[in-house]
Predict the structure.
Amino acid sequence: MPSLAQIRFQEAMRRLLEAGVSGGVFPGGVAATSIYRDGAHLLSEGFAGSLSHENNSARVRSDTIYDLASITKSFVAVAALVAADRGEIELDRPAEDVLADLRGGVAADVTLRQLLSHRSGFSAWGGLFLDLPHALGSPAARRWIVAEAARRRECPADQRTQYSDLGYIVAGAMIAAMAGAPLDRVVAENVTGPLGIRQEVFYIGGSGAPSRTIVSRRIAPTERCDFRGRIIRAEVHDENAAAMGGVSGHAGLFGTARGVAVFARAILDVLADRSDVFPREALIGALMPQADSTYRLGFDGKSESGSSAGSRMDPSAFGHLGFTGTSFWCDPRRDLAIVLLTNRVHPSRANKRITGFRPAFHDGLVGVHDALFERKASNA
């Protein structure tokens, strides 16, 4: 039987998501919260809307799967921390020692740590897929994309923090090369497998992932893609990731709100010294703020103003956004994780209403938490 807190969170999430649907923010969405109280983990889920704007579209359910977009970066970064803790990869090894195509190039000296921390000096983004001389998803295409991403360097490493998809493309290739296994397997063996969410967070067609034919009906469509000439569904939205076959360090994971909430909860539990599923000291180090940016190794932090996390979350909060309309935020002080999964890019990325929706959504759920627990604490 759900607790009062779970019921309150569920009601609030459903109400907020319904407002998003009626306001044209997205066709539908699923949200989840996770709190830890009195020795128990309390997970709540809410959902509203439809998979698409089509009149006959199926309704969203709690197990609807969304393209997580850049939330992928957090999973990949944590997988790297775990693999490094096991001695399987080295965070400070130069790229040219790992990837032969980068030897003697402009990115020869960059390290995995710098790439994961957005301190590599790489450009933020580039339409590499537009000039691809190989078949989509082929080994040659993956190798070409990585090499081309590494050429898009704007300044030396550690000169400044600049969020970079291209940096994470190279990071994913370095992790796979050092681990001696495909990136999807590294993520599955170090993160989703230990958390028991391989069937809920996965690269489509990747290690331990459910069959595409089984889950395709549960996957929300994203955008009408000019590059591919169709509405994208059950394949990665990001064009560079698609050119690489759907598995990359910067994008490619699909998942449920519950799956992402389990991941976020695990991080909070490790920080609180309740779990050792991830290396605690390495995770604490990864979350240390950088002087010139809110970005950390694998995560973003809450800015002083205008944060998508809203105004009520603690300054220590961290998480990550996804371009498709996804996000998760963790508030260590409240021991609260909030996940929002939508397909706001359906049918077009031109819809940017989610920019205003996100902070209001998070403020609303933090308000529910504080009404349940902060007042109780002050009255104790």
The mean pLDDT is 96. Residues 354-379 form the longest helix (26 residues). DSSP finds eleven helices and eleven strands in the chain.
